[in-house]
Hints:
This protein is of the alpha+beta class and 346 residues long. The protein has helices spanning 18-29, 36-44, 57-62, 66-92, 115-122, 141-155, 180-188, 239-246, 248-256, 276-285, 294-303, 310-320; strands at 3-10, 14-17, 50-53, 101-105, 130-134, 161-167, 192-199, 205-214, 222-227, 230-235, 268-271, 325-333, 337-345.
Amino acid sequence: MSTIKVAATALPDVKLDQDQVLAMGRRLLKGKVPFVDQALRVIGNAGVDTRYLVKTPDEILDNPSLTWRNGVYHEAAIDLGTRVMDELLQRSGKRADQIDMIITTSCTGFMIPSVDAYLVNRFRMRSDVKRLPITELGCAAGAMALSRAREYLCAYPDHTVAVIAIELPSLTYRTKDFRMANLVSAALFGDGAAGLLLTNEPGGCRVNQSRTHFFHGTPELMGFDLGVEGFKIILDKSIPKVVKRDFVAPAKAFLAAQPRRYPEQPMQYVLHPGGRKILDTLRDEFGLQESDVAASRQVLARVGNLSSASVYWVLAEKLAQAVRGDGFMAAFGPGFNAEMLSLAFE
């Protein structure tokens, strides 16, 4: 009976609205690419109203080196992770030495030791705390970390697990990369973090079952190539079509196999806001109402796509609304891969 007791979120300080992004895009692209108007339409139609960054756009653009950006990542990841962990402890009433396992996810920078080591030190967690950093699962990592937390609590029902997702996609933007994938990334992604605290105590949001679905023969759809100029985003435009073709049937089968604990209540959908087209596809193929994807759209509009942290933001939105009923979480990531979980909001 793994249960999400509390959720916490954190954002960096630099706020950027979409008008600023459009103006910056026009300034950077004019005279360099023949499709300025098309690129600006992509940005304008991304469904993002505001986002938050760890540095100002000019600082990021003026410092393209991987060394500088990864240094910023290191510092900001520790800061955001600390803020999330502090809120999780305060809201749950737990002490740091009561955490038995800490799982962290991130794909937008590189640290050894990983960020969890700094959190263990900062909060003086027990020396036997278990650590699981997940670094290469992209946007699906948050959902997958939640699956691993549930499995751990099945084996150790008296334990407590903290799961923290920290993503800084702004530091992966390549200033001289004028491919549409890089521009779409700039249109969608923001920086931020979120976390969950799980136990087997009653109350909260129960995590019932999970399932991974791997899409064979699709490693080229999503990911990063890492070179001297940093992270080169791989983001194929066919992703919504692949989701429609290959994800809907296994997802419906997974849902059909789950017992409905609250059949009188509407299903609560916690869907990764990867972009407007992804949400449109999921809404249409599952026969949902716009209200079913409203929380995902609100998160996308307010903070952008936060990669692995996004589904935690949507979940936090649902918890804040005090919804009741069965739930379904889904997120997609490199591989190409999907992770699904059945939930119960109690």
